[in-house]
Every structure is written in structure tokens, then in C-alpha cells.
């Protein structure tokens, strides 16, 4: 089946086949990134606007890098849900960008659902780079890509997501993708941040770290932002680390071959011990590298490319 | 004004326990038992074959946005939308700009009503100054200026002590308090019902517990002070149960349900369509069914629309940033007939009662009956006619309706206020 989507809004709506197509395309791009000349002409003459209305470092840089590797021109539009502070609506901002001749918009926004909203308004592809607590599809894609590189098939594998699940778009996108791959997903953390309302998504909800981590093939840690959204959800960072921080002892409960993941940015000493973050089992920096290839795949496919044409396009 | 002779209608008047096919006679703006032979000859005849004739509908919860937000709605356009929906009496909320917390603002609104309204429009005043929940509004002056109830609707008085004093003080004037039941501390940033759907969508949830707590608080204060507290737009199953128990104990509380809370659930928010964003939010199927049962057994006294107009450009936003509220007046009857009569086997007369006698009685309005001598406020509707609702072609100034473009069943044909036809054949006037 050929790739037909022009937007990437959620992983919830993608089929397993579509996720595999993106991964296969990303694998081809990853090979190219290993060469001395890393650039391909696939999107030459196209202009991609990175409309980042919420602070971001690595996702924005990764999209920027991915677009440039594909020879696209990249324009950055930064703000703080921004021109809205000048009274301009998201619709007007986006329509202006489209009127300037952009070929694609990559949007990061604090409001859940805003990429879907834009995709209904604009005639150009919209890529979700994170919408509120909803989804972060490219992160879910690069995380599962990284897991598959290490574990092969994810079917029946135990994947644990640990931390602030409630406010995490990374958790939601990973859950949707992992469930499609047939993985057994456990979400674990304090009951205020890991509510039972996640169960209908097909995951096991746990507040017992030991049973959750036991024999897990993957543990993915999420950043705890106690100063912002999780204020009042648990007593202190110290108590969080005491109950749910990943340390050497607790890592011993994992499957011996398990990998440790984190979408970044890391709070060393809070959700993860510093030495574990840098240890053999950590694939945190691989995630970042894979993020380029996966985003190249997404930009390429949503611009009308097909998975099998990647190699011939260079 | 010509006399009216409405012929062959199915006359449903719960106040006089009438449900039979027959005629209605109107003279000098009042219902009369019959007309003389000469009067009959001169009377304007309305053939109501196949139609229901009931008292003009009464909605005790609308937002006409005047003064201050007249780009959304005015008393003129709102009253036209009401007439098109079969309503002949409505009660406006005071969360205007400025809010209606002084006798002067009430007078300004009353002047506009007298000049521009095509139906009977009543006004409420605020409970607290500026609707800020900090000090009592001049409730005595508001009463003298003509308000029929007080409410901080859109907001909820958070201080239990202030609400207690408001109850005691308002009781002195026999003024009901109407409360939008929401604990703010539990709903900061909330935009939809808290549950599996909000979790999936990544939207901040508004737990039903935040409504239940204030409903309980109000039951306790009504018990303690003896004041009449009316709970607006109940959305939660637990709140229905709390009210059921309070009513069994004879406590002076009443409550309303909206057509949207009996028709829709939070699943409707799945595409982030802001036409499903309102406050209180759409809740779960369990809540929806409990509200219907509350209406069936009288725990919830009445239907009210919470007609809340917003312009297209205000609603056309990210879900988080769009204002709360939807239109209600032009679709209320059709939606309620569909859900209550056709889907849940309510008697037609019961639904008419929920829209007429009961709300009129709740606020002691001279409305809601076709008894001889009553003002001739009448709604004629076809309970089975199918029609497609075009919100943009409607009479409200705004078009923010979740039913836009949908086929509805049950259509208002004629609306009469004080014996004058104000809506007929799809036209006002």
C-alpha cells in the first residue's frame, strides 16, 4: 500500500503498516546520514516553516536538521503561542505563513488539538511537533524505532513508561504506537500522575515500581517538571525520587538486556541517577540521532514521497 | 388587536391537565373560554390541524449579552431566536459587560427590553459586586429595579460564608438564588469533562466532583437558611443523586437540565470541535442517562437552554482558548422531543410541562398556562416535522450550535405573545 497521508497529527490514527512504512523510510535515511555527504535533494525548492509556539530545543533542532538534510529551506517562527499575545489568532498566523508560500508547517503548540485544527484549515501538510498534553508523534516514532533496533519485534515485550504520564504527550504517542506493535505497556508513577483513565488506551496502570520494572525490556523515563504542571501533584522532588527515581538497585529489577530511554531533557538525580543516564544500557543519545532520520522520513513522506524511492532519490 | 381562533389543535396544557384536540380562543391578549358568534366571524383563524398548541415555552437561563457584548447577541436578536424556538418568556443572566449588579444597569436592560424584545424578557441580578465573589451586590436595590432572581452564573460564589449571607439576605426579599455549581479550585484550566476522553485528548479535565461539592454545599445552605437555591445546568450523576435525597427531605432546592446535557456526551469533544465546549462540560453516558432519569422522577425540575451565543471568530480557535457555550433556543424543543419523548418514552405532556408550567412556577412568572384569563402566550408546533437546522440562517446573531446542519424532528410553527403572532411561517413579526 502506498503512503497517502499529507499530515502527521497523531499516532492514534496511524495503522501499524503506516508506522512500519515510516520506520522503513527512516532506516534508509539513517544509512545516508552515515555517509560523508549527508544531504539528499528530496525536498529541494520546498520551504518548511517551523512554527514553534512553545519553547523547544531538541525537537526544533531535530526538525531543522532533518529538513536541511533533505535540502529544504527552513524558516523558523518562534513565539509563545505568540502572536496570540498581539491578538492574532492561530488561524490568521497560519494562513499568513501559507500565503508566504510555505510548503509545509511543523507546529509545536501548548494547546492540544491545534495541529488537527490547522490541518483542517490549511491546504499544505501539517506536522505535529507536540500539542499540549496530547501527542508528540515524531517522538513516539523515534522511540519505537530505537526500541526495534535493539529488541527486534516488540510483540509481547514489556515496556514500562515511568513518571508524569498525565501531562505527557510523549507517553500518549508511545502508548498508541506500542499497543499497535503488540507490546505490553505498563505506565507507572504516583497515582496523581498515572490515573486509571489511561486504561482504555490498552495499558496496565501501576503504582508499584518493583512489579512494574520486573523483567521489563524497556524503561522509558519522563521528565518531572515539578515547578510547572505537576506542582501540587506530589509532595516534593525528594519524595518522588525516593519512591520512583530510577537508581542502580531498581535498574537491577529489569531484564538484564533492558534498555533505558528518556526523551530529554533529563533531570539528573531526579527521575534517573546520573550514572545510569550515561551507562551501557542507556540509549538516550541514540534516540536523539534517530530523531533526525525519523523526522526526515516524516517530512519526506508527507511531501508526497514514497518509502521505496528513498535510495534512488539521492 | 384581532381576536384569534386556533382550530383543531392538540391542546396540551399541563397546568389545567388538558390534553385533547380542540380550539383555543384569544381576546384582548388573554385566553378566553369562547368567542361570541360575531367575534368568531371577525377573529383571525389559525388552522392547527396536526399541531400541538401548548403554553409559550419558558426558558429561565439565557444569555442575551446586552449590554456590552452585542456583537454576539442583543435582546432584539435573542428574543427573536427565542420566538422562533417557541419561547414566550425568557430570563437573562447578569454576566454582561458591565455585569448587572446595579439598579442602573438593570434599568438600562429593561429599557432595551421594552424597545426591542418581541417576547417577554426578564432579568436577573448578580449575587456579588462585579460578580467577583467578594461582597454582596445591592440585592435590595436590584429587587426594586425588577430582577426576579440573583445569580453569578458563569461564575460560582466560592466563599461558603458569603453564599450563606446571600441566602439569608435574598430570602428577606423572597428572591431565589440561582447557582452555577463549580468549585474553582478543582477546575483551574479545565476545558472538558475529566475522564477517559480528556485523558486521550490531552485536555485538562473538569471533574464532576467539582459540581457535586457545590451542589452539596447549596443543599446544606438551603437547609440552614431556608432560602430557595436553584442549581443551574446539572451535569453530573452524583449531583442528581444528592438533589434526589435533598428533595426527599423537603429542602428548598430546585434544579435544571439542558437539552445538550441530555443529548450529548464528552465523546463529542473527540475532534476538538469547540461547538461542544461549554461549562459545565458534556459528561459521560452514565451522567447523561442519570440526568434523564432525574427529569423523569422530578429530581430535576425543568429544562433550560443556557443559550450562550459567541461569534464564529471567537469559537474558531484552539479548544483550550475558545469561549464556553452554545446556542440553545432554536433547537431546544426538537432536541428534547427526540431525546425524551422518542428515545426515552416520556409523555409529550411531560416535556411540555418541563418547558412551561414548571419553569414559570419556579420563578413565579405569569406564564406557562392556557387557563382562561391567562396571557395568551402560545406555542404551536408540529411534533413530527423533520427539518434541517441551519444555524447561520437562524435568528440569533451567532451560530455556535452543535446541531448546525443536522436534521431535527419537531418544529415550531407559530409563537404568540399576549395574543399577538410574533413568529409564523419561519418569519418574525
Explain how this protein is built:
The complex is a heterodimer of chains A (314) and B (429). In chain A, α1 (16-33) crosses α11 (284-302), α5 (137-151) packs across α6 (169-181) and α5 crosses α11 (284-302). Chain A contains eleven helices and nine strands. Chain A is globular and about 55 Å long. Chain A folds into two domains: 16-136 and 290-313, Rossmann fold (3-Layer(aba) Sandwich); 137-287, Rossmann fold. With 314 residues, chain A is α/β, with parallel strands linked by helices. With 429 residues, chain B is of the alpha/beta class. Chain B has a single domain, classed as Alpha-Beta Barrel (TIM Barrel), CATH 3.20.20. Helix content of chain B is 31%, strand content 22%. Chain B has helices at 37-42, 75-84, 103-116, 139-145, 160-172, 196-201, 208-225, 237-248, 259-263, 285-296, 312-315, 332-343, 348-355, 357-362; strands at residues 4-13, 18-27, 30-32, 44-47, 52-55, 57-62, 87-92, 120-123, 150-151, 177-179, 192-193, 205-206, 229-231, 253-257, 302-303, 378-388, 407-417, 420-424, 427-428. In chain B, strands 1, 2, 3, 4, 5, 16, 17, 18 and 19 form a nine-stranded mixed β-sheet that branches. A five-stranded parallel β-sheet of chain B has the order 9-10-13-14-15. In chain B, α3 (103-116) packs parallel to α4, α5 (160-172) crosses α7 and α7 (208-225) runs parallel beside α8. The longest helix of chain B has 18 residues, at 208-225. Chain B is globular and about 65 Å long. Chain B starts with a strand and ends with a strand. Chains A and B meet through α4 of A and α6 of B.
Per-chain topology:
The complex is a heterodimer of chains A (314) and B (429).
Chain A: H1 16-33, E1 47-52, H2 58-69, E2 73-78, H3 90-99, E3 104-109, H4 114-121, E4 126-131, H5 137-151, E5 158-162, H6 169-181, E6 184-188, E7 204-206, H7 209-213, E8 218-221, H8 237-244, H9 248-251, E9 259-261, H10 274-277, H11 284-302
Parallel strand pairs in A: 1-2, 1-3, 3-4, 5-6, 5-8, 6-7, 8-9
Helix pairs in contact in A: 1-11, 2-11, 5-6, 5-11
Chain B: E1 4-13, E2 18-27, E3 30-32, H1 37-42, E4 44-47, E5 52-55, E6 57-62, H2 75-84, E7 87-92, H3 103-116, E8 120-123, H4 139-145, E9 150-151, H5 160-172, E10 177-179, E11 192-193, H6 196-201, E12 205-206, H7 208-225, E13 229-231, H8 237-248, E14 253-257, H9 259-263, H10 285-296, E15 302-303, H11 312-315, H12 332-343, H13 348-355, H14 357-362, E16 378-388, E17 407-417, E18 420-424, E19 427-428
Parallel strand pairs in B: 1-4, 1-5, 6-7, 7-8, 9-10, 10-13, 11-12, 13-14, 14-15
Antiparallel strand pairs in B: 1-2, 2-3, 5-16, 16-17, 17-18, 18-19
Helix pairs in contact in B: 3-4, 5-7, 7-8, 8-10
Amino acid at each position: 500500500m502506498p503512503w497517502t497521508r499529507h499530515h502527521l497529527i497523531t499516532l492514534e490514527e496511524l495503522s501499524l503498516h503506516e508506522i512500519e512504512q515510516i520506520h522503513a523510510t527512516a532506516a534508509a535515511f539513517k544509512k545516508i546520514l552515515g555517509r560523508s555527504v549527508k544531504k539528499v535533494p528530496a525536498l529541494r525548492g520546498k520551504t518548511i516553516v517551523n512554527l514553534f509556539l512553545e519553547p523547544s530545543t531538541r525537537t526544533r533542532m531535530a526538525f531543522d536538521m532533518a529538513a536541511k538534510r533533505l535540502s529544504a529551506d527552513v524558516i523558523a517562527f518562534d513565539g509563545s503561542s505568540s502572536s496570540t499575545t498581539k491578538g492574532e489568532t492561530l488561524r490568521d498566523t497560519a494562513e499568513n505563513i501559507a500565503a508566504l508560500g510555505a510548503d509545509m508547517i511543523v507546529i509545536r503548540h501548548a494547546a492540544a488539538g491545534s495541529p488537527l485544527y490547522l490541518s483542517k484549515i490549511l491546504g499544505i501538510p501539517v506536522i505535529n511537533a507536540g500539542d499540549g498534553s496530547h501527542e508528540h508523534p515524531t517522538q513516539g516514532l523515534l522511540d519505537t524505532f530505537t526500541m526495534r533496533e535493539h529488541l527486534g519485534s516488540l510483540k509481547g515485550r514489556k515496556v514500562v513508561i515511568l513518571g508524569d504520564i498525565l501531562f505527557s504527550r510523549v507517553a500518549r504517542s508511545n502508548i498508541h504506537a506500542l499497543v499497535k506493535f503488540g507490546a505490553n505497556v505498563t505506565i507507572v508513577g504516583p497515582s496523581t500522575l498515572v490515573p486509571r483513565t489511561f486504561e482504555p488506551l490498552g495499558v496496565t496502570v501501576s503504582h508499584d515500581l518493583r512489579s512494574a520494572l520486573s523483567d521489563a525490556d524497556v524503561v522509558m523515563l519522563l521528565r518531572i517538571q515539578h515547578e510547572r504542571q505537576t506542582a501540587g501533584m506530589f509532595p516534593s522532588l525528594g519524595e518522588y525520587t525516593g519512591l520512583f527515581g530510577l537508581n542502580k538497585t531498581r535498574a537491577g529489577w529489569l531484564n538484564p538486556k533492558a534498555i533505558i530511554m528518556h526523551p530529554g531533557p533529563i533531570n539528573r538525580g531526579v527521575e534517573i541517577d546520573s550514572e545510569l543516564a550515561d551507562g551501557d544500557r542507556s540509549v538516550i543519545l541514540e534516540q536523539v540521532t534517530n530523531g533526525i532520520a525519523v523526522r526526515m522520513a516524516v517530512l519526506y513522506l508527507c511531501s508526497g514521497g514514497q518509502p521505496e524511492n528513498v535510495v534512488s532519490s539521492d | 388587536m384581532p381576536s384569534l381562533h386556533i382550530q383543531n389543535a392538540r391542546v396540551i396544557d399541563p397546568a389545567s391537565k388538558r390534553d385533547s384536540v380542540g380550539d383555543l380562543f384569544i381576546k384582548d391578549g388573554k385566553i378566553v373560554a369562547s368567542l361570541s358568534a360575531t367575534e368568531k366571524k371577525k377573529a383571525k383563524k389559525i388552522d392547527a390541524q396536526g399541531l400541538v398548541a401548548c403554553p409559550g415555552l419558558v426558558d429561565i437561563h439565557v444569555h442575551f449579552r446586552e449590554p456590552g457584548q452585542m456583537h454576539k447577541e442583543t435582546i432584539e436578536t435573542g428574543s427573536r431566536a427565542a420566538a422562533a424556538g417557541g419561547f414566550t418568556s425568557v430570563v437573562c443572566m447578569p454576566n454582561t459587560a458591565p455585569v448587572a449588579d446595579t439598579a442602573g444597569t438593570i434599568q438600562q436592560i429593561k429599557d432595551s427590553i421594552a424597545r426591542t424584545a418581541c417576547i417577554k424578557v426578564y432579568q436577573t441580578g448578580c449575587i456579588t459586586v462585579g460578580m467577583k465573589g467578594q461582597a454582596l451586590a445591592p440585592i435590595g436595590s436590584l429587587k426594586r429595579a425588577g430582577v426576579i432572581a440573583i445569580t453569578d452564573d458563569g461564575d460560582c460564589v466560592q466563599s461558603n460564608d458569603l453564599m450563606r449571607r446571600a441566602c439569608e439576605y435574598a430570602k428577606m426579599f423572597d428572591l431565589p438564588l440561582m447557582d452555577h455549581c463549580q468549585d474553582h479550585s478543582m477546575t483551574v484550566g479545565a476545558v472538558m469533562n475529566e475522564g477517559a476522553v480528556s485523558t486521550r485528548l490531552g485536555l485538562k479535565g473538569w471533574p464532576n466532583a467539582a459540581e457535586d461539592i457545590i451542589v452539596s454545599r447549596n443543599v446544606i445552605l438551603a437547609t440552614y437558611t431556608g432560602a430557595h437555591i436553584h442549581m443551574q445546568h446539572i451535569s453530573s450523576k452524583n449531583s442528581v443523586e444528592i438533589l434526589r435525597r435533598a428533595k426527599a427531605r423537603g429542602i428548598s432546592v430546585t434544579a435544571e437540565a439542558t437539552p445538550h446535557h441530555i443529548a450529548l456526551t464528552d465523546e463529542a469533544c473527540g475532534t476538538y470541535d469547540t461547538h461542544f465546549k461549554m461549562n459545565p462540560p458534556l459528561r459521560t453516558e452514565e451522567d447523561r442517562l442519570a440526568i434523564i432519569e432525574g427529569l423523569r422522577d422530578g429530581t430535576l425540575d425543568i429544562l433550560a437552554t443556557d443559550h450562550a451565543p459567541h461569534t464564529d471568530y471567537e469559537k474558531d480557535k484552539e479548544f483550550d482558548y475558545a469561549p464556553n457555550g452554545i446556542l440553545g433556543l432554536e433547537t431546544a424543543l426538537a432536541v428534547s422531543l427526540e431525546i425524551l419523548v422518542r428515545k426515552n418514552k416520556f409523555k409529550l405532556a411531560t416535556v411540555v410541562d418541563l418547558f412551561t408550567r414548571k419553569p414559570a412556577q419556579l420563578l413565579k412568572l405569569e406564564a406557562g398556562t392556557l387557563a382562561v384569563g391567562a396571557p395568551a402566550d402560545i406555542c404551536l408546533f408540529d411534533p413530527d416535522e423533520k427539518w434541517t437546522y441551519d444555524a447561520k440562517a437562524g435568528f440569533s446573531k451567532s451560530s455556535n450550535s452543535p446541531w448546525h446542519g443536522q436534521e431535527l424532528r419537531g418544529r415550531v410553527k407559530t409563537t404568540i405573545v399576549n395574543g399577538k403572532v410574533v413568529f409564523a411561517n419561519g418569519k418574525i413579526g
